[in-house]
Amino acid sequence: MGGVFMEKLNGILGEMKGMSRFLKERKVEQKIRLIWPTIAGKLADELRVAYFRESVLYVSSSNPVWKAEVAFISDHILKQLSKTVNGAHVKRLQVIDDGEVVFPSRQSKRDVPSGDLRQLILGENRRRIEAGMSLCNECQAVFTHEDCCVFCRCSRNES
């Protein structure tokens, strides 16, 4: 009888530990959602917080180009998150397609363009130039409507 009771108790405690981790991750996710516009700046329109799991922050975008470009900005975003969200321990930033996440405001998944990544990037760069954007004068890596991107502007403000 004691063995069955201990087995059930261990099962309940195991479920509680899993639920505890789940709740902690949701709290961190909510903190990140609140400060995301400040952390990401104008990129918050392109990269939206999807969810936070096992120290990875998943952000979604309808633009597949961001999967390649996030490597250039993830270190900066992770540093800002570690300063702002105590105990978040976000170790990695991962971009996923909007179609992989169901947003309350969107009823259907968006179609993601397919094709050669180089062609997609060139097409996106053309779209940005046509929209009046140009490369940041300081880093020459991020398209912006201003002379300086949000990342270079942030690093100047930190100095």
Protein described:
It is a single chain. The protein has 159 residues and is of the alpha+beta class. The protein folds into two domains: 2-112, GMP Synthetase, Chain A, domain 3, CATH 3.30.300; 115-159, no CATH class. The protein contains four helices and five strands; from the N terminus they run αββαβαββα. The chain has helices at 2-40, 65-84, 117-130, 150-158, and strands at 48-53, 56-61, 92-97, 134-135, 143-144. The strands form two sheets. A three-stranded mixed beta sheet has the order 1-2-3. Mean pLDDT is 76; it is low at 103-110.
- Any idea of the CATH class of the largest domain? Alpha Beta
Biggest beta sheet summary: 3 strands, mixed
Taking strands numbered 1, 2, ... along the chain, how are they ordered across the largest sheet? 1-2-3
SSE string: HEEHEHEEH
**End-to-end C-alpha gap:** 66 Å
Q: Would you count the extended β strands for me? A: 5
Classification by helices and strands: alpha+beta
Unreliable segments of 5+ consecutive residues: 103-110
Integer count of domains: 2
Radius of gyration: 20 Å
Shape: elongated
Q: Give the % helix.
A: 40-55%
CATH topology grouping of the largest domain: GMP Synthetase, Chain A, domain 3
Overall pLDDT confidence: 76
